[in-house]
Amino acid sequence: MALLVVANLIKDVRFGRQAQLVIGAVAVAAIASNLIVMNDGANFLRNQAVLTKADLGAMQIARRAIDPRFIPAPATAGTGSLVDVEAKKYFAAIDEYGSPAYDPRELEAAPKPGPHYADIILAQALPLSTVTRIGVYDPSGTAKRCVVIPLNQAPAESEVRLHSGITKIEVAAGPPAAFFLRRFSLDEYPVTTEGAPGNSTTRLSIPDDSAPQPWYLHVEASQRTRVCLVS
User: Fold this and answer.
1) Which DSSP letter does residue 116 get?
2) Ordered mean pLDDT values, 10 residues apiece, the chain (231 residues)
3) Do the Cβ atoms of 117 and 83 come closer than 8 Å?
4) CATH number of the domain encompassing residue 142
């Protein structure tokens, strides 16, 4: 805009060849510096679009259970653009105008870090919850629907596939254990629970939602741990 204004003001001025070269060089430098800013801005907006579509997609998946007053917090949504998006009002808007969000299949294939923040928002929106009882681990437990977590293996080789309902995590005596979950993320576990001390049993509750993809649980523990499907 500044170049256009200046060009209009000096349209009747005649410059020598050297002056034209100098003016041309200044113009090229100015345009180049602005293109860099515009490119950075475009990349920022693309990233914000991915985060917004992923977070809103997670809210839609949790629609059956979500608190109508739920609002994605910037720290857990990855973006501050949703601070005024309340679940109840958002659902009313998409019912009338349609949704801008990723559907579950698109969310699986979404660019990073979309799936990462979608997992976090989904865990909060449902919400996932845990209740731990201490001193109740049964070393002789042999429930048919239990999986023993192998020790000293990579997370992807020891993770347990979960669905909605109640899952029981039994931790033998020893140091505290940590529990991590993922759903749409492929190579990380964005959702962290409170974990549990040794010699304890934790009931993990996962409310039902509208996406077919399962959750995956990763347990970090130095002792025997069992994961049992309750319901």
Assistant:
1) H
2) 82 81 81 83 91 98 98 95 96 97 97 97 97 90 78 86 95 96 96 95 97 96 92 73
3) no
4) 2.60.290
**Both tokens assigned to 54:** 């992923």
Q: At what angle do helices 17-61 and 114-125 cross, to 10 degrees?
A: 30
The residue whose two tokens read 């990462």 is 116
Instruction: Let me know whether 135 and 109 are in one domain.
Output: no
Signed CA dihedral, 71, 108, 164, 166: sign only: negative
What pTM did the predictor assign? 0.83
Q: Which amino acid is at 123?
A: A
Domain match, 133 and 209 both? yes
How far apart (Å, rounded) are the C-alpha atoms in residues 230 and 147?
12
If asked whether residues 103 and 177 sit together in one domain, one would say no
